[in-house]
Design a protein that fits this description.
Elements: E1 4-7, H1 13-24, H2 35-46, E2 51-58, E3 60-72, E4 75-85, H3 94-108, E5 111-115, H4 123-130
Parallel strand pairs: 4-5
Antiparallel strand pairs: 1-2, 2-3, 3-4
Helix pairs in contact: 1-2
Protein name: GNAT family N-acetyltransferase
Domain N-acetyltransferase: 3-147
InterPro entries: Acyl_CoA_acyltransferase (IPR016181), GNAT_dom (IPR000182)
Length: 148
């Protein structure tokens, strides 16, 4: 079967949740997702107004990208919430193909900016840098934990 990029719909939710757990529970993230929590996260993103997402398949889902458009001060912005590529298929252009599909779609919608949050100084940042993204000089990410 040849490689194909399709719109991310609920049809792909379970496959993408399984991939999400496999990837983000491993190095370098070492998170603790379950299939249920990953499925719920992706379901929530999928149902956010302005959602745009794609999956790349070749017999199975090899990767996906997902996020949503929102109104910014000057035009529309796109919040890239998740991009995920099968461990064994990384560094083979899947993520770049997904970003290119996303860019083509967003350009046609007159989106003026894409923003995202990722781990600094790692392979994810290197991937985004390679694809033309740069660290913001104006913005930082802040968090506050309030659970036990």
């Amino acid at each position: 079967m040849s490689e194909e990029i399709q719109t991310f719909t609920t049809e792909y939710l379970d496959d993408c949740a399984n991939l999400y757990v496999e990837v983000f529970n491993s190095e370098p993230w070492n998170e603790q997702w379950t299939i249920e929590t990953a499925r719920l996260r992706l379901f929530e993103i999928l149902n956010t107004p302005g959602f745009i997402g794609f999956v790349l398949r070749q017999d199975e889902v090899l990767g996906f990208v997902a996020g949503y458009c929102e109104q910014m001060q000057k035009g529309k912005g796109f919040y890239l919430k998740e991009i995920c590529t099968h461990h064994d298929k990384q560094r083979r252009g899947i993520g770049t193909k997904l970003l290119n599909q996303l860019m083509n779609t967003l350009t046609g919608m007159e989106v003026t900016a894409i923003y995202l949050v990722t781990m600094k100084d790692g392979q994810a940042e290197a991937f985004y840098t390679k694809n033309g993204y740069q660290r913001s000089q104006k913005l930082i990410v802040m968090s506050k934990r309030f659970y036990k």
